[in-house]
From TrEMBL:
GO molecular function annotation: phosphorelay response regulator activity; transcription cis-regulatory region binding
Pfam families: HTH_8 (PF02954), Response_reg (PF00072)
An individual GO BP term: regulation of DNA-templated transcription
Name of this chain's protein: Two-component system response regulator RegA
Domain Response regulatory: 7-121
Alphabetical UniProt keywords: DNA-binding, Phosphoprotein
GO cellular component: cytosol; protein-DNA complex
4-aspartylphosphate, modified sites: 56
SUPFAM superfamilies assigned: CheY-like (SSF52172), Homeodomain-like (SSF46689)
PANTHER family tied to this protein: KDP OPERON TRANSCRIPTIONAL REGULATORY PROTEIN KDPE, REGULATOR OF RPOS
Amino acid sequence: MPAPDRCLLIVEDDPHLAETLASAFTRRGYAVHTALREDSAIALAARIRPTHALVDLKLAEGSGLGVVKALATLDAPPAIVVLTGFAAVATAVEAIKLGATQYLAKPATAREIEAAFSHRAGMAMPEIEAPQVGVKAQEWELIQRTLAETGFNVSETARRLGMHRRTLARKLAARKAAGEDIGSIVDFED
């Protein structure tokens, strides 16, 4: 059950990545809500009052910086981490000025993001604690993240992970058989 002080808003326009992040943070005890666009993120934030927010800088509809600015004006602003594949000093500075706690370049692990939530201006980045999840859970998180990055291309995912395609297919089949949602993979068997 999620802790009441851990309500996370994920603003990410890639639905597969948003789903992967939501799954990772749900396992870490967060109540997770997702939005794909700036306007829906701002409306959702006003309703749920998140304690934490993970915001993609480049959104297909709207701007991550607009979301950061709106979140920072809430009565109790959340800890905001901006996540982007287009890291640049100017946008990092702008995000921090608008109220972001930290700015991370993609790809970032759930542990790195969680550590960034507790960062405060003028402080060194906190040490990333030893994982509180098992090796299998870490492996599954890495597989999910890599699948999302490759657009759920199993062959490319296996190549990036240094794994044989059939090994990855077996792992995915086992997860599917266990009833886990593995995204939009329809046919991953040989």
